[in-house]
């Protein structure tokens, strides 16, 4: 395999602590000059902000090697020559759109783009619903309904998508995991055919399912979300299962 995609939470770190075997694996990729990207559905932060967050955990990855669902969504839109959207989202999505010359507006738009926004208002939801029912395409950065926080779970982008879908009856087009778009675009960034890409993740429903849909090899690492009990009950089967990345050969 010539290129690697790695999820972050549950693969490189867990509960705010770096996973030693994963750090050693990452250093092997970096030391060997092997093409890789960190692939995450979280789109609130920019790649630079995520790089700094990782650095605080002792994980050194440049921003150029981090690919978020927000970056993938902006790239998907720019490839289709979209220049104006109505957007719900935070800094990561705002900057990704602006870097590609995509302006944000409530008028004359043919696309409504929704990511996680922790300061969303009712007016934002109402405007999104109005534009979608008038014919704008409904785009979601990622389908995750929630994400873990210290005191339980917090709503993620999928919760906002569900509210808009319920009001409009329109289903969103998802760009992030587990849909193929983010994997295909990541492969193009690496300059490696998707069939020669390995996706390493800890979630069956996003990392592994997405890799299979895109045609990449899938590796499940049991250091995060998925347990062996969950794996036995799941219809989603990875190509490779490892307890830690120290068990995985690069070549």
Give the topology, please.
Blueprint: E1 3-6, E2 13-14, E3 17-18, H1 20-31, E4 36-40, H2 47-56, E5 66-68, H3 69-79, E6 84-88, H4 91-99, E7 103-104, E8 111-114, H5 122-133, E9 137-140, E10 146-149, E11 152-155, H6 157-168, E12 173-174, H7 180-190, E13 197-201, H8 204-214, E14 217-221, H9 228-233, E15 240-242
Parallel strand pairs: 1-4, 1-13, 4-5, 6-7, 6-8, 8-9, 9-12, 13-14, 14-15
Antiparallel strand pairs: 2-3, 10-11
Question: What does this protein look like?
Answer:
By secondary structure, this protein is α/β, with parallel strands linked by helices. It folds into 2 domains: 3-41 and 177-247, 3-Layer(aba) Sandwich (Rossmann fold); 81-174, Rossmann fold (3-Layer(aba) Sandwich), CATH 3.40.50.1000. 37% of the residues lie in helices and 22% in strands. The protein has 9 helices and 15 strands. It has helices at 20-31, 47-56, 69-79, 91-99, 122-133, 157-168, 180-190, 204-214, 228-233; strands at residues 3-6, 13-14, 17-18, 36-40, 66-68, 84-88, 103-104, 111-114, 137-140, 146-149, 152-155, 173-174, 197-201, 217-221, 240-242. The protein has a 6-stranded parallel β-sheet. The longest helix is centred in the N-terminal third of the chain and has 12 residues, at 20-31. The chain is globular and about 50 Å long. It starts with a strand and ends in a 9-residue tail after the last strand.
What profile does the largest beta sheet have? 6 strands, parallel
In angstroms, what is the radius of gyration?
A: 18 Å
Q: How are the strands ordered across the major sheet?
A: 5-4-1-13-14-15
CATH superfamily of the largest domain: HAD superfamily/HAD-like
> What form results from the Cα inertia axes?
globular
Query: How confident is the prediction overall: mean pLDDT?
Result: 94
Counting H and I runs of at least 4 residues, what is the number of helices? 9
Estimated share of beta-strand residues: 15-25%
Order of helices and strands: EEEHEHEHEHEEHEEEHEHEHEHE
CATH class of the largest domain: Alpha Beta
Count up the domains.
Answer: 2
Distance between the termini: 7 Å
Q: Please give the CATH architecture of the largest domain.
A: 3-Layer(aba) Sandwich
Poorly predicted spans:
none
Q: Output the structural class.
A: alpha/beta
Share of helix among residues?
25-40%
